[in-house]
């Protein structure tokens, strides 16, 4: 068997075009959607991510404001900046790029963002809303994965779904979303005994561990749908430095039923869902203003 390769980049293009149309409609109704992105420090990977987010906004008709703050920014200074953006009616979404420098408490910062501007979906109010089944903003990566599964026509009700990774950003919300679609969900992590055995049961396997090519063909059930959230750099060998996922793509291609590539799978969808969340935030803000 050779797996179908799921084209996340093509799906993301379609979603960006839809966002573009929604942004134009909102502008015509006198609201310019706006996203503020804060980057503290000069981590090179974060700089690239942030630049891409700003570029996506420009192309979709969303105004974006990139705020760079120095690496030695104090927590108080960052919180003050967030307060100002919370109060700014032209800003509908606020994203603080993670990770943050050591002197700053990430949780404090996330909780300082107004929940109705938390387009990352990381605030405890939004995480709780997802947990209790009435989500407002979904974290972009798991949201993108659900769109991929929907687009690929994957039947989730009753399916065995295994999520490898338990981060607040991906693993936990991903598991919740799969559960909401009536999958039987297992979350695996670094202390899981016999990871391969769990993975082999999966009809849908989501790899979000951050370890290059750790999911190998022998860990995949024939015909399974494999979603690779990993974004790693190959450490050595002829392809050193190149981007690769958590899945050994070439090996798993021969076993799986469908698979997302890296790059070109989940990554573009994560970026697209940030635009969707920002549009939602702007549309809700406009509706609140109109209702006053
Ligand atoms: N760093 C890595 N991924 C993300 C993300 O989705 N949002 C934010 N804010 N920071 C990140």
What can you see in these coordinates?
It is a single chain. The protein is of the alpha/beta class and 292 residues long. The chain has two domains: 30-115, Rossmann fold, CATH 3.40.50.10860; 140-266, Rossmann fold, CATH 3.40.50. It has ten helices and eleven strands. The strands form three sheets. It has a six-stranded parallel β-sheet. Strands 3-2-4 form a three-stranded parallel β-sheet, sandwiched between helices. It has a two-stranded antiparallel ribbon with strand order 9-10. Strand 2, helix 2 (44-60) and strand 3 (63-69) form a beta-alpha-beta unit. The radius of gyration is 19 Å and the shape is globular. The model has no long low-confidence stretch (mean pLDDT 97). Guanine binds at residues 95-98, 120, 140, 169. Guanine (GUN) binds next to strand 4.
The rounded Rg comes to 19 Å
Question: Structural class from helices and strands?
Answer: alpha/beta
User: What percentage of residues falls in helices of 4 or more residues?
Assistant: 40-55%
Total E-strand runs: 11
- CATH homologous superfamily (4th level) name of the largest domain: NAD(P)-binding Rossmann-like Domain
Please tell me the CATH architecture of the largest domain by its name. 3-Layer(aba) Sandwich
Contiguous helical run count: 10
CATH class of the largest domain: Alpha Beta
**Unreliable residue stretches:** none
